[in-house]
Amino acid sequence: MNTHLSEQEIIRREKLAKLKAAGIEPYPAALYPVTHYSADIKANFTEENKSAFEQVCVAGRIMSINDKGKVFFIKIQDSKGLFQLYVKRDDICPGDDKSFWDHVIKHGIDLGDIIGATGFVFITKTGEISLHAQTITLLTKSLKPLPVVKRDEAGNVYDEVTDPEFRYRQRYVDLIINPSVKETFEQRTKLINTIRAFLNERGALEVDTPVLQPIPGGAAAKPFITHHNALDIPLYLRIANELYLKRLIVGGFDWVYEFSRNFRNEGMDRTHNPEFTVLEWYTAFKDYFWMMEITEQLMEKIALALHGTTEVQVGNTTINFKAPYKRISIFDAIQENTGIDISHLDEAGLRNVCKQLHIEVADNMGKGKLIDEIFGATSEHKYVQPTFIIDYPVEMSPLTKKHRSKAGLVERFELMVNGKEIANAYSELNDPIDQRERFEEQLKLMQRGDEEAMYIDYDFLRALEYGMPPTSGIGIGIDRLCMLMTNQPSIQDVLLFPQMRPEKNS
């Protein structure tokens, strides 16, 4: 006896045994020839064209059973929605032998089971388009009961299961019982496909670069580390794919992009997951001014593709992705929000400002990290409508080209929307001598204990020495962008399987 099973689970296992004893296969292997889907039938069936729906085969999960004795009304859910089956005993078992009806329909099926049905489509007396079933096939017996949700007369859920621990850990159930969840992930795919089409139409080439890297480069972040047994070397899960994509620009590609699954061994919150998706692209002979313009075009395109308008509702705020977007330097943004001009301060001066503003900072932080902390604490959340924060100090941007006219700055922007960074872009540094010096500065920060400082990638330096054309590159956080475009409050709501603590199993 399985003492850990609930009463419902025990009953379902008993039903499973009875089905098998009656010669009913509860998990058949054969293909089931589905011909129609719920939404398509509902959209296209009329009394005038009912002859086109005389031989229909559907399949789905049982979501409700209404037992009327010799007639059952069963609602199934397929990949496109809910659909009603009208199941009459004498149609399913037209002869004297009614054992199938008794074993399967009357006593064998439960909510959550997956069944198939063939028959013809008609409209019931209550006006519901339904399938008059002529055969029923049990395709999968469900041994765990679904959580109970409330539905209106049309079958729409109005009391969704909201417990995040349950929803994120058992996403497969979440998708079954909460229809809006499935819609979010369909929108996510539409968003990615829109970006891919946008780039492909402009001649960009999609590529793949390594996930396991000997040096975790291209970003300031703490990596995950593993070990390769055959080579007996440490390897890192990538924190970014930037340096590999730039190698391809050196190799002669004009425009490359990749949807990169990145990994950072850092904290988790509503906008951070240790595993996340970033789109990066690099385009030869362009600069960050061009990149701002094409980024505006892309954001407009995504909003229109998902919503039919550039105005997107995010919580209680309407965000307009119509170009052009505001542009402001990071120093001006900080001064705009604090009244303090930090543009000429050294590290000691920045630490005093942090103290004055009650911002806690670590002793191993250099100028770049201190400025980043000040901006994050005082200004970032203020930029709700799309805004380009531009012209960062060189200490914050070790892979970025120095500004053409402003000493001490680099040609970089971050796109802020709803108070969060959505994109990060540069005029890329292609001077190998300058790049080596920047890496060496990062090495000094690492020696001070900064776990997020960049490693020196000598092969990348060698690639730059062959010559990389003037290039502009960008990284766009797909998960955060998806949160915005689908009005979801947490990154866990746009990741099918967000990271969670392991369950404690006895």
TrEMBL record:
Reported cofactor(s): Mg(2+)
Domain of life where this protein originates: Bacteria
Localization per Swiss-Prot or TrEMBL: Cytoplasm
Cofactor note: Binds 3 Mg(2+) ions per subunit.
Positions that bind Mg(2+) 2: E421
GO cellular component, one term: cytosol
Enzyme Commission numbers on file: 6.1.1.6
Gene Ontology terms for molecular function: ATP binding; lysine-tRNA ligase activity; magnesium ion binding; tRNA binding
Keywords linked to the UniProt accession: Aminoacyl-tRNA synthetase, ATP-binding, Cytoplasm, Ligase, Magnesium, Metal-binding, Nucleotide-binding, Protein biosynthesis
Protein name: Lysine--tRNA ligase
Organism: Hydrotalea sandarakina
Gene: lysS
